TrEMBL record:
One BP term from GO: deoxyribonucleotide biosynthetic process
Keywords, ordered alphabetically: Deoxyribonucleotide synthesis, Iron, Membrane, Metal-binding, Oxidoreductase, Transmembrane, Transmembrane helix
Protein name per Swiss-Prot or TrEMBL: Ribonucleoside-diphosphate reductase subunit beta
UniProt remark on cofactor binding: Binds 2 iron ions per subunit.
Amino acid sequence: MTQNLLDPGFELTLRPMRYPDFYERYRDAIKNTWTVEEVDLHSDVADLAKLSPDEQHLIGRLVAFFATGDSIVANNLVLTLYKHINSPEARLYLSRQLFEEAVHVQFYLTLLDTYLPDHDDRAAAFAAVENIPSIREKAEFCFKWMAAFDGTEEVDQLDRLETQADRRRFLLNLICFAACIEGLFFYGAFAYVYWFRSRGLLHGLATGTNWVFRDETMHMSFAFDVVDTVRKEEPELFDDQLQQQVTDMLREAVEAELQFARDLCGDGLPGMNTESMRQYLECVADQRLTRLGFAPVYGSENPFSFMELQGVQELTNFFERRPSAYQVAVEGTVDLDEDF
């Protein structure tokens, strides 16, 4: 009997390989290895002193969110995704992703230590979920949709995906993780970073964010591939009810991120304000819905020209210390006499 991707169990057989595309994603991820020690934040310290009080507030809130966001993602990887995606090829990729999330957490830890020299300020940032309402709201959104939740009340954590109802709940978890957290919350945060970069500021933050951006894009693409596979194997799960739930989820995510934008932007900064962020988030939400095969709901266009560059994964920015398309273990030879 053919086994589906979400069937309970713990498949161990890599040959014959049922999902070779997942294995190729794992191999691609290995090529894109970077370390926090490669990110030079020295020039950022001088830039921080140039910022206005409102811009310094924005940066403080931003790094506080970073400090908690990837930890939520990593916990969900271990407690839910690895447990229920029954493919050794997929679990190879998820293992690699967990390593990347750990690097991201280390990067954000280093950011906080560099940007917030005061011990009390750092402690408050690490406790952002408890003491910053706009970040707490985003965390509560994550816990609602990524925990076992049927829309009316919390239920027991999923142990095995025995029923269609179980698998729908798992899909909501996976889609929240990919489309809302990595695909919306982090994309919103990245926009603030690239706004500073477009002004020639915080080059170290932008360099590290480029590599995080690349990793997160790959994580999101893998998760959407899992959704595509489940859709092929169990199309009955993708009915009008699921579409409505996912649409509601994206709408809630946009509103939660807008609350964060109001906190960060206040009455508005030159080139960055809540209204432009709303348009950007709505544009991104529509992209996520379309990728999932659902109808877009906003029809907004991206107002940030500096974010258009980020669609190119081989981006090399003028301000960067090296190309953001960094890879390790590149095979072959280089002919220095060859024309480029």
